[in-house]
Amino acid sequence: MAQVAAPIRESWDLGAGHEIDRSLVVIGSIGGGSRYEVFRAWDRELFCQVAVKVMRPHRVHEDRVMDGFEREVGIASRLQHPNLVRLLRWTAAPPRPYMVLEFVTAQTVAAHLESIGEVSIPEACLLGIRMLSALHYMHSNHVLHLDVKPDNVTMGDPPRLLDFSLAQPFSGPVKLRHTMGTAAYMPPEQFMHGEVTPQSDLFGLGATLYEALSGMRPFPDGEEDAIDKAQIYPQLVEDPQPLHEIIDLPQLLERVVMTCLARDPARDRGALRVAERAQDPQVTIPTRDVRESVTLSP
Question: Which residues contact 229 (CB under 8 A, 6 or more apart)?
């Protein structure tokens, strides 16, 4: 008699009160992806709430997934910036390799758009400067994020850039072997298996700020089953609608966002100089009302 293969277990099925291990007690589920489940938990060692990324049971023995786990841990361990989520500790020991990260209570930009609506211009200016500062720091430490999007950027004070699962070390342009990232926020070179650079992260930030300000994605959803890549990834052939046609905002802010969304990274998708300005003792960004301004001080 033929044996029936056991079903693949894709989840640890951990609910409130269950232990990830003796040091971590689940409070609730935060979400997850194809490789990890993410839980809010109580850490008995650190004596605080944390976020825990637990490798899914059916991926634990995959060399590619474990390599990605080790790469993410290595990158997150050496990055310390006030606008980057912090890795607190980790273990690769079976049966449940996991990473313990600080638990950020602030809403993500995506959650803010869903529950409240568009982000105000002053808030978007502050958010943009802080994210540029975080990306400038990452790039100065030779790391690309490659998944900047509303789900990975939090509001709050300070805002945080989350999730290093796709982050890549670099010493020059990185040639991708396959498509990785989130389609709506990827620059053309990222989904064309091209060479990604720091300018690739700026495209994702530009798309995030565009959506935060307008409530609209800069590019419509493509057709997943299309043969023509231009139908799958509209940013290959389309320019986003100018922001000033959707909302009233300062020209400087629109110029920064739209420059980040340039299709060709060689055109200085740029705004890196804005990231450098974020290191200045004081940065003043104009708001909609010319009589007011947003001033950042350390």
Answer: 191, 192, 236
